[in-house]
Fold this sequence. Notes:
alpha/beta, 390 residues, single chain, elongated, 2 domains
Amino acid sequence: xxxxxxxxxxxxxxxxxxxxxxxxxxxxxxxxxxxxxxxxxxxxxxxxxxxxxxxxxxxxxxxxxxxxxxxxxxxxxxxxxxxxxxxxxxxxxxxxxxxxxxxxxxxxxxxxxxxxxxxxxxxxxxxxxxxxxxxxxxxxxxxxxxxxxxxxxxxxxxxxxxxxxxxxxxxxxxxxxxxxxxxxxxxxxxxxxxxxxxxxxxxxxxxxxxxxxxxxxxxxxxxxxxxxxxxxxxxxxxxxxxxxxxxxxxxxxxxxxxxxxxxxxxxxxxxxxxxxxxxxxxxxxxxxxxxxxxxxxxxxxxxxxxxxxxxxxxxxxxxxxxxxxxxxxxxxxxxxxxxxxxxxxxxxxxxxxxxxxxxxxxxxxxxxxxxxxxxxxxxxxxxxxxxxxx
Length: 390
């Protein structure tokens, strides 16, 4: 799955830039670039490998999937499409890599943006700017130095990634400023597609996790959902109490010799209860949602769980891509998930992990009220038959 993601990201990026590279065929070099030690070169754009032992005074761009190695110094940006980037030397500006890993054992004065691969700081490697890795990982050695911030697998990193990757169009459209709307639109569309692919991966993972209780324990999910619908405030209160007491309870187990072996089981039980409870809350959420819009919702339990989760996750993730009101939407989605877990834990407690049907509390039977006037009237006397003479 990991290799499939990387290949898909590479194909997506390659499709975005293929037409642009064709537009500047005459300026794109088709040979390996080597800057010898003591030599100086200007801007370089090639579809082969780049090796810099001297000084490259400008930007270095490799769009053919070949490796880029910097033993000397690059004063501008380093941009690579599909190849491995190794920096034992120095890059004074930014590094942008799509579909290939970045290894830094030297110094990078700007930011590092990598899509679909790993960013690794080894040895005494130093990065002064931020590191953004979409669909990859960031690994830092013990002696490495990173002065900026790290954004790993975060949709918000698209906001910083997009303007940096747009720099590639300077070398593929033939203009310093992007004035080709078709190329810019294709690149933006490709990055949006990449972001949607990452979001889709997260959504699918969450849906699969929440569908497990519905598949294997459907009755338990239905019982927990009925408890939330029947007494939502009681479920909320019990769930809040469980969340407050969970960590102190684990701490008590940790400090006890006999309780230490029980810690893993307690964590597994808490996780299973949270997943079951959130699955039940998803059923209730989608039911209230479709009642509010006066539409018919899903019929099957699987559809109800998936729809409820999609409402929460959609607000949480897509809100990060929408300006102005996106923050409010993300906050609403996060709050729904938090309350869903809390109410779910309460419902699971009320139904003994969903094994018992929810029975609402019995209300005392109301006594019939007799009007005062009716109570004051004497009981009517029955007419007795006349006595027979003896």
